[in-house]
Amino acid sequence: MVSHSPLNFDNSQITLPARELAQRRSGTDEIVLLWHPEDDRVEVSVCDVTTGATVSIEIAPGDALDAFTHTYAYVASPETVDQPVSDEVVATVDD
């Protein structure tokens, strides 16, 4: 009989992946609503599929559906101006 020692997981090293709550397309933009269960954060991410430019903004959980539906209004809001942006933000306004 083979004996195994009990598994010892260090919780600080286990990271849960973000969960995709919703996804839609608007022109060449792909909009994704993500929830990060580790710290209960919600974010909306916009990616221009032709250029690869992306922008992600953190959203209050109570505003998640509204931010997903009216993404460009949230991306342009004064609260998100100081958030880091990767690459150039390219967004069409056809919502």
List the topology elements.
Blueprint: E1 19-26, E2 29-36, E3 41-48, E4 54-59, H1 64-69, H2 71-75
Features:
mainly beta, 4-stranded antiparallel beta sheet, 32% strand, disordered C terminus, 95 residues, 2 helices
Overview of the structural elements:
The chain contains 2 helices and 4 strands, in the order E-E-E-E-H-H. By secondary structure, the chain is mainly beta. It has a domain at 17-80. Strands 1-2-3-4 form a 4-stranded antiparallel beta sheet. The longest helix is centred in the C-terminal third of the chain and has 6 residues, at 64-69.
Tally of alpha and pi helices: 2
Q: Which structural class best describes the helix and strand composition?
A: mainly beta
What does the main sheet amount to?
Answer: 4 strands, antiparallel
The order of strands across the largest sheet is 1-2-3-4
Low-confidence stretches: 84-95
How would the global form be characterised? globular
Following the backbone from N to C, one meets helices and strands in this order, namely EEEEHH
How big a fraction of the residues is strand?
A: 25-35%
Total beta strand runs = 4
Distance between the termini: 64 Å
Structural Rg: 18 Å
Average residue pLDDT = 78
Specify the helix fraction band.
10-25%
